[in-house]
Amino acid sequence: MVFTLTKVLIVGSGAGGGILASELSQRGVEVTIIEKGPSTPPGDAHCHYDTINTGVEILKTHCVGGTTMVTAGNAVRTCQDELKKLNIDVGSELDQVEEEVGVTILPDSLLGEGTRILMDSARRLGLSMEKMPKFIDPRLCKPCGKCALGCPRNAKWNSQHYLKNALNMGACLIENRPVVDVLLENGKLKGVRTHGKDYYADVVVLSSGAIATPRLLKRAGLEAGAQLFVDTFITIGGVLEKIGFNEEVQMNALLRRKDLIISPHFSSILVDKIPGAAPEDILGMMVKIKDDNQGQVTSEEVVKYSTARDVGLLSEGAALAGSILVNAGADPTRLVSTPARGAHPGGTAAIGSVVDSNLETEIENLFVADASVLPSAPGAPPVLTILALAKRLGRYIYMDRA
Q1: pLDDT reported for residue 177
Q2: Dist. CA 156–CA 135, nearest whole Å
């Protein structure tokens, strides 16, 4: 069959959707991006959190740029070994993406006192804590502690940068328009349906996240929604008076352990849990684990709970984080923890189960390009991996299909 590519619809404007729109638009493909949420300045992205309360609280956003708007700007490579086992090598794409988004180690001038103290404490305990690679422009960054709320100075890369390029190349962005169904005719893809209007295309790429994407796939008659992971995390915190850690660049260092990472992190939840403590008195560390993919997304609900292995990993990480905090000078009698939360839902349209190695479903020309396709929890921020997979998909759609 000769495939003539004329129009691509991308559902969602986060990491996968943004870079894919840019890749295809600059090659002359007619691209339309349909986004559930509105445009927002980076500094206001926190207004668009859409948290799901289930067994583990899942954090996500709905706005142009998606969850990239509220990431901490962490740029670590994840899932490469798992992808290679599936005959997917994204090494070259990762190299390109890192250059495009400006991955760098921030200078010491942007390393706050609290982070320095924690790194020194870990070192004294014989633990190797390295600086976290970031996609933050050090020329624009003025530490304020608001990375996860949306950068008020637009110093941190987000998907809007790729979307801007796509729009300059002729792409169309439709905001505030939730997609409710995939349009099929006699089993053939026709486009998508929104409230009040249908959109037609030769190719549809779902990039709406690991909760919305499997629901659209299920409505199209595909088995999706199983194997949900969320990279479960907690933040352990204590008191070191007037440290001012709450206004530092967050997660600016990294301790790697098997199936978990530990990183300096402030959470306002800790303030409420420590009587008499002010935000500037809190010193904290995040423990993020590679959790079991035992959750599920159905048409009506999201189910996610912590397995015995997950609890064990969280306990191991909490013990290490507590030791580092106490060794750094935090009061050992006032250590507390946040509830378990998840910031990286994925796995619900996994490669090898729901999509093939080219991210295509059983329905010809229906693709997925978000964290849904990851085969297992990365246990660390997956943004670079999603970008690399979507860049690879763009080449496949344009060069191999067109």
Answers
A1: 96
A2: 6
First-to-last C-alpha distance (Å) of the chain: 11
Find, among 279, 379, 289, 284, the residue nearest to 322 by Cα.
284
Do 136 and 248 meet the contact criterion of CB atoms below 8 Å apart? no
Instruction: In whole angstroms, give the CA distance from residue 198 to residue 191.
Output: 7
What element of type H or E holds 314?
helix 308-327
Task: List, for residues 228-268, the tens digit of each pLDDT value.
Answer: 999 999 999 999 999 999 999 999 999 999 999 999 999 99
Strand-pair partners of 52: 58
**If you search the block for the tokens 């493909």, which residue do you land on?**
29
At residue 169's C-alpha, the angle toward residues 43 and 178, to 5°, is 55
DSSP letter assigned to residue 295: B
CB burial of 169-193 (b: ≥16 within 10 Å; e: otherwise) equals: bebebeeebebeebbeeeeebbbbb
How far is it, in rounded angstroms, from Cα 17 to Cα 204?
Answer: 11
Task: Report the pLDDT averaged over residues 360-380.
Answer: 97
Predicted confidence (pLDDT) at residue 60 exceeds the cutoff of 90: no
pLDDT surpasses 50 at 216 = yes
